[in-house]
Amino acid sequence: MAKTKKSPKHVVPAQPHKFTKRYSLVDVILRKEKKFLYFIAFSLILAGAIYPYPSIAMWVGFAFAGYSAIANDSIQTIGTFIGSNEDKKWYWQWLFMGGIFIYTVTYSWIVFDGDVSYQRLATPGLDETPTSFVYLQLASPIILLLLTRFRIPVSTTFMLLSVFTATTGTIMSMLDKSLKGYVVAFISALLIYLLLTNVIKRFIKGEAHVAWTVAQWLISGFLWYTWLAQDLANIAVYLPRELNVYQFLAFTLFIFLGLGFLFYKKGDRIQNIINEKSEVRDVRSATIIDLVYAVILYYFKEVNNIPMSTTWVFVGLLAGRELGMRIRYSGGTSKLGKTFKLIWRDILSVTIGLIISVILAIAINPVMQEELIDFFFK
């Protein structure tokens, strides 16, 4: 019987490799942040459409500034609070901080005759209600939103107030006060953690006593009040310097609801700036940070009414703390490279924000352009 010739197995010919897409970092960001970037694009277009109409532009600018300032500055005042209370319901945190906000802004509105900024906007160059707007004044809080999204903790004071400042003298006064705040915060935190790190380590061992949670909520509340007294000017700068009752209610309700969204999102992406620092999720460590920060802010609040960058103070505080802890933990300087890298990155972030805000201020203000020309060419 003849053998049946087996048909050869079908061999699938090797397929040429399909073209594999290689996405650059920009491509990845664009794909991941598509909806957010659409929102930014829409906001920039909206700003361009409404800036010629002051009565509408002031409220749209306030809305952008309110959300962007609170979202960016959440890392300073309520970042450690959020990080160390992850086991608590977000709405209790919101109602607590929201209640302090309502009290703080109401007190200023009553005592200072409709001014919700604790007279920070009484500073020369910022004391007049805007009667007209230029495009970049509405675009600056949108730019701040964009920078916040990518975890750059820029100074809202410089980003939002500098575009309304009439003179370079005001900006220089704000810069001088902010630099002093950074230095004081850095040295204070460095000394505290150099001298007391071992004592603090004993405190944060084991389960925290409930008294620490109570203390942290009280101290965080005081810090939040102190920050509001400094930075409400950044949001109110778009609005009349004396708000009537309806304007005041709109101002208060918008920010109160914005706080609720922020707590619901657990601080959003900018919260990672806090979470990457050492031991900030422990309620005892967070309480110490908030106490030092609150005392420094309160001191500068009482010095004068010139606005300052609370972001710079906070970055200085964290930098001094990290450096002090690293020196004490490592027993020397062998492992300082990572710490200096974190410090440098945060300094670079706030410096980028300062440069952007100064460029915006010069682009907007013809008086500052003339002063700059006189400085360089005369």
In short:
This protein is mainly alpha-helical and 378 residues long.
Could you characterize what this model shows?
The protein has 378 residues and is mainly alpha-helical. It has one domain (50-126, 136-371). Helices cover 71% and strands 0% of the residues. The protein contains 15 helices and no strands. The chain is globular, with a radius of gyration of 25 Å. The N and C termini lie far apart (112 Å). 43% of the residues are buried.
Task: State the oligomer.
Answer: single chain
SSE pattern, N- to C-terminal: HHHHHHHHHHHHHHH
Please state the CA-atom Rg, rounded to the nearest Å. 25 Å
Structural class: mainly alpha
Uncertain segments: 16-21
Helix residue percentage: over 70%
Counting structural domains, the number is 1
Number of β-strand runs: 0
* Mean pLDDT across residues: 78
In terms of DSSP E residues, the strand content is: under 5%
Give the termini distance in whole angstroms.
112 Å
How would the global form be characterised? globular
Largest sheet: none
Total DSSP helices:
15
List the defining traits of the structure above.
378 residues, globular
